[in-house]
Amino acid sequence: MGQLSENDQSGASPSCAAVFYKVKSRSAHMKSHAEQEKKAAALRLKEKEAAAAAAHQQALQEESGAGAGDKG
Ligand SMILES: [Zn+2]
Questions:
Q1: What is the pTM of this model?
Q2: 10 C-alpha to center of ligand 1: Å?
Q3: How far is the C-alpha of 64 from the C-alpha of 67, rounded, in Å?
Q4: Does residue 59 belong to any structural domain of this protein?
Q5: What is the pLDDT along the chain (72 residues), one digit of tens a residue?
Q6: How close is the Cα of 67 to the center of ligand 1, in Å?
Q7: Which of 2, 6, 30, 53 has the fewest CB atoms within 10 Å around its CB?
Q8: Under 8 Å between Cβ of 20 and 12
């Protein structure tokens, strides 16, 4: 992720297929990409936490309930 030269002149968004004739339009578009990425990252983190919590709950249930007689 270190291309600085070619893409800049074409006015194309490196994140999607959109092409812009004005630099201003493109930078505004790139800002929206950044916002989207932020939201997506936050969402992913939430999902991870939810999955971890669910796994934790399941582990607790297994430990306290079924399987107690299996230990030996
Ligand atoms: Zn784009």
A1: 0.54
A2: 13
A3: 8
A4: yes
A5: 554 444 456 789 988 989 999 999 999 999 999 999 999 999 999 999 999 999 999 999 998 876 556 666
A6: 52
A7: 2
A8: yes
